Amino acid sequence: MYLVVGEQQMPAGTPEARRAQYAHMAEVVRQSPGFVRGWWGSDEADQEIGHALVVLDSREHALEFAATVARYVPDLRLRVVAVDVTASAP
Fold this sequence. Notes:
By secondary structure, this protein is an alpha+beta fold. It has one domain: Alpha-Beta Plaits, CATH 3.30.70.100. The protein has two helices and four strands. The chain has helices at 15-29, 59-72, and strands at 2-9, 35-42, 49-56, 77-82. A four-stranded antiparallel β-sheet has the order 2-3-1-4, covered by helices on one side. Strand 2 and strand 3 form a beta hairpin. The chain is globular and about 35 Å long. The model has no long low-confidence stretch (mean pLDDT 91).
């Protein structure tokens, strides 16, 4: 599995507006090839910085996803990360 980690400046707005924007992003990303799971949220220290963590099933899908997102959202900072170890609550 691979993670695509993103960070971007979000438009100023209410927490409800940001949640609606994240929900829209989630709906679009959910349709991506290899999508496994995703999380979106705002930085506690700066609510206008948004973070995304998207899990994809392969390196190929993660790189393809990151390239597509970068093409449409140029101000986004992205990292593609290989998952080496996972942990879950007992």
